[in-house]
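Note to self: the last two entries modelled the partners one at a time, which told us nothing about the interface. This time every component goes in together.
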Amino acid sequence: MTPKQDQLTGAKRFKTPKTRRDFLGLAAAWSAVVALAMAMLGAMRLPMPSVFPESNSRVKLGTPERYAVGTKQYFPKHRLWLFRDEAGFHAISATCTHLGCIAVRNDDGTFHCPCHGSKFDAIGNVEGGPAPKALVWVQLTVSPEGWLVADTFKEVKQGTVLVV
Amino acid sequence: MADTQVESPKKQEQVGGRGIGDDGALREFGSNLVQTPGRFRDSMIRHGTPTSSRTRSQAIFTNFFLHILPTRTHVHAIKAMTTLGLGVATFVLFLLLCITGILLMVYYKPSVDQAYGSMLDIMHVVPTGRLMRNVHRWSAHAMVFCVILHMARAFYTAAYKGRRQFNWVIGMSLFVMTLALSFTGYLLPWDQLAFWAVTIGANIAQSPQELTDVLGITSWFDVGRMQKELLLGAHHVGQEALIRFYVLHVMVLPIVTSVLIAVHFWRIRKDGGLVRPRSADEVPADHATPPAKSPPGKAVSPVTSAPLKTYGLMGLMHGKTPAVNRELRNTISTWPNVLYVIGAVSMVTVLAMLVLGMFFDAPLREMANPAVPENPAKAPWYFLGLQELVSYSAFMGGVGIPAIVVIGLALVPYLDREKEDTGIWFSGAQGRRVALWSVGFAVVVVVGMLWFTVSVGWLRDWESTAHVPQIVITIFNPGTVFVVVFALWSLFIVKRTNSTRMGAIGLFTCFLVGFAILTYFATVHRGPNWDFFWSESDWPVH
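The predicted structure of the combined assembly is written out below.
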């Protein structure tokens, strides 16, 4: 193509403002752009929820006496495994850390996820597959009336146990 | 007050002046009534029967719906091999989706308690409901397919160059919009597949945590969590997510897509019409104009190609050189030639969708159950290639690589600025060779990597590297290996052929082949637990 066409098709860039009027005009235009952008940002705050429909994440699991030492129980509704051993109680979320499927606990105590083949050991550490981090240990407490309560949104460090 | 008192007797006089019994007005009314159909037509269609060049031009540019077309079109534009009709087919599918979609909205209820029931109603009770849903589903699949083919056509005929650069970018955003429309529509039936495919999708939106966790900034800048919450309005897929996907699917995305389509079409006109090879503008010997008189010492090259500027409304020409009897060379009247072509492509497209919809039902699984994952939970076919990549690393497969691919493709026109050989498939014999070599290369690389991943494994499957940190897997996995190897291949071609266009052909071919093989592989060879199976009949029974 000829240089002339390049001139036509190539960018005709804005020249830098030389006069005060140019500057004021640009300032006004940019003020309007920034104001609109901020208004849009403000409007986009609406779809960011501040209260979640499942905000009440605390689940009562009954009195601790219901679970003998050696218990391994699954709560399908809360996707939660509850364990009691000599050390105390702990709970592991079965939600796979890869893409949110439900990990299945095998008979030997390890977990595997059916969606993309992630594997976890008995305390949730990643053993294979694409999962980026260990299964979440969920906070357990005892309520004033003496019930075991799991907060499915609260994560505790792996190895934390609740002694009753 | 005073004025009206003065005026009113005059009016009475005028009316009375015609005399009672003289039925001129009444007669006029009658003749108006008789002529109304003709006059109504004339007021609506402001030109005569399109039989002459002038009225044919007017038929195009006085019609709101047709004036997006030029009054005269280059003959090259309606040759089958120029576009294969893919752009028109895609647009017709979009219209078909709008029509069937609006009809489905009449009965569909975006509520977790009622959505599945209304799907059953549409399938079994609503008159023609099953056909409409089937056509909607098939058109959605076909639209994705046509968009990809249309992109390939535009790429291989080098229609992204010069003035058409930006329209390629618009096209890329339309590609993304098409995928977004499909993805949001996927949740609405509220069956098992919908629920679990969208759960996976929402967690892909959350996957930037893979990166922020490594950087240790997740606690105060958790962009993954923000994206997921914005998409779902909750922590799990539920009522909030359903209504959000519904709003996006029936309102936000169709409007954005329509606007982008309008810009896309408008830019075709403004960027000089459909791409054509320079040879399409060669002057037939008998039409050649004598060389223009030029002042001595100043060489003026005769104009040998059709002007870049599109024709004005009437098919008149702008320019500096006199171009009598030359400006419309190689063009034909849009009415009716181009309209016939558009009509034929539209008919074939609609017919294909109707036939598919008549004989093949869109699937509907059992109702969504958040307690039991679908195994395997496969996304629609066009996302299965990504799902394969996601099974290596959620962030890279779901966010990183798609972003690199889309941005990379959008930038191609700005990196490959060679202007020769536009409008020619593969830009000629060398491009065909490069494309063939690239097909072979990509097949070897992708099949080889898949074989390696399935039979040998990847980092975590080996003793010595079983506990490498996540960041290593995020950065170094089969998906990222594809991207790097393909980028190196295309740079190698640029060096070898000394042409950025050839490098671009190599890169795009690798992308297409990779997409096709990964899609095929995940569709056919992945089963429960995302394990490898030769066919679905080998899947374990459970």
